[in-house]
Amino acid sequence: MSRRYDTKTTIFSPEGRLYQVEYAMEAIRHAGSAVGILATDGVILATEKRVVSPLLDQSIISKTEISNSEKLYKIDSHLVCAVAGITSDANTLINISRMTCQRHTYTYGQKMPIEQLVRRVCDIKQGYTQYGGLRPFGVSFLFAGYDEDFGFQLYLADPSGNYSGWKAVAIGTNHNSATSMLRSEFKINKEQTGDNIEGTKELNLKEATKLVVKVLAKTMDSTSLTSEKLEFSFVKKVDGKIVTEILSPKKVDELLKEHKDVIEED
Amino acid sequence: MSKKLNFLESSFCKVLRPPQLNLRIIKPSSMAVFAFVLFALFIVFAGVIYDLIVEPPSIGVEYVSIFQYNGSTIVAMAGKNCVAIAGDTRFGVRNQTVALDSNRIFKINNRTLFGMTGLNTDILTLRESFKFQMNLYNLEEEREISPKTFAHNVAQTLYSKRFGPYFITPIIAGLEGEDYTPFLCATDLIGAMEFPKSFVVAGTGEESLMGVCETFYKENMEPDELFEVISQCLLAAVDRDALSGWGSVVHVLTKDGITTKRLRTRKD
């Protein structure tokens, strides 16, 4: 039944669904996982690499500090994004995001506010679901950044063009188990808060990092966590200045060693 | 009547004798006379119109070229594995000084300094434009641009406005490569590049600067001596230029970093 309504993006099915968009979201579910957590003093993004082969030429990474990451990209000095899905689709949108940020800075003399950028990318993605006859982008983004008006922020933008801000989010393979782990960690019991509202915990960046490592350890397919399979990125304030860092493999190994007690728990 | 003439004849003509001029009496045709008068009139009027257009009557001249609207001076010199770039900090509009702290020398990265003279609005716009391009370069290449590549970028940006140019004269000073070889580049307003080895000058004070630099420059100066030489050259030149001065800034770039010093100049 659905076969008659899924070849074009621009038509609804009788149940009111856009099948192409849903198939695009399905593509994300099979991609390498990405987790993001918003802390009080920063944002952390972690991703699982898919293309891991000893035949990859990694010589340039050892020579310089170039991160050469597969799924984490810097958009501007205050904004990083993690990609889940078709990387080539992501590259187009990342180029557009970078140009958009610079154009905003050129016109207004300030860093582009995160939500404005996310909205812009999502408007482009939505365009591909409504007109043009082209397929949607098969990529979800996790945008993490800082601006002066709203502080640290974390957004998820999916192929349909929807976006929302999250305290913690997981996309890609095993995102259901990752999300449920994150939810249980973040929930505070009513007794603990003191008042009668069920809230969410406020984590600082160190605790958030620990949580991310724990979640990845539980949900990743492979048994060992090394810099070969994982990438990390931070947005934080250092000496009053905003710093976005995509960790080099050496630093990832150090970080994993620091939190290895969490990994070895299970 | 005849009596009067007789009197004249008798008094003057007796004493004075008219000279013997053997003049040929020219009797031109009336058309010829008309043509001559018309031609003379044409010459006179054309001359008047030419004077009014080429040199219109005025009391003095405000500025000869658009480069003198704001006025500024920059000099860059190369030493031994170091470069220095210095400029004045006056921001003026014609003959009025508006601000004393306008910065025209910008850091592109740890290896490259970029200064511009000329129309201030173009300086500010191009500063933003190059920041735009450099941010994208850093994000895409994941490394810093080398001075030579940046100089070519500047030249291309300026040439892209070949028929409606930016009124600036840029100077790029940096340290190139692993050996930190000094690199100097100056271009004109449409991007014709020059790569001198010694020093480069630009701005309203460039003529006096050229002379002073030529005298005091020597090769392979260490950073301290380079700082002294470039400071003295700049100070001497801006003192003589009405449109530059009111404070100056000197940057010395070595492999250890950039040192910046501000110098006092004459406040006039």
Automatic annotation (TrEMBL), chain A:
Highest taxon of source: Eukaryota
Localization per record: Cytoplasm; Nucleus
Xref: Pfam families: Proteasome, Proteasome_A_N
A GO cellular component entry from the record: nucleus
Predominant cellular place of this UniProt entry's protein: cytoplasm
Residues of the Proteasome alpha-type subunits domain: 5-27
Single GO biological process annotation from the record: ubiquitin-dependent protein catabolic process
Keyword tags: Cytoplasm, Nucleus, Proteasome
Gene3D superfamilies reported for this sequence: Glutamine Phosphoribosylpyrophosphate, subunit 1, domain 1
InterPro entries for the chain: Ntn_hydrolases_N, Proteasome_alpha, Proteasome_alpha-type, Proteasome_asu_N, Proteasome_sua/b
Assembly with partners or alone: The 26S proteasome consists of a 20S proteasome core and two 19S regulatory subunits.
Assigned protein family: Belongs to the peptidase T1A family.
Function: The proteasome is a multicatalytic proteinase complex which is characterized by its ability to cleave peptides with Arg, Phe, Tyr, Leu, and Glu adjacent to the leaving group at neutral or slightly basic pH. The proteasome has an ATP-dependent proteolytic activity.
Identification of the protein by name: Proteasome subunit alpha type
Protein's organism: Anaeramoeba flamelloides
Automatic annotation (TrEMBL), chain B:
Keyword set, alphabetical order: Cytoplasm, Membrane, Nucleus, Proteasome, Transmembrane, Transmembrane helix
TM ranges: 31-50
Superkingdom assignment: Eukaryota
Chief place where the protein resides: cytoplasm
Subcellular location: Cytoplasm; Nucleus
Gene3D superfamilies per the UniProt record, alphabetical: Glutamine Phosphoribosylpyrophosphate, subunit 1, domain 1
Family to which the UniProt record says this protein belongs: Belongs to the peptidase T1B family.
Known partners and oligomeric status: Component of the proteasome complex.
Protein name per the record: Proteasome subunit beta
Top-level taxonomy: Eukaryota, Metamonada, Anaeramoebidae, Anaeramoeba
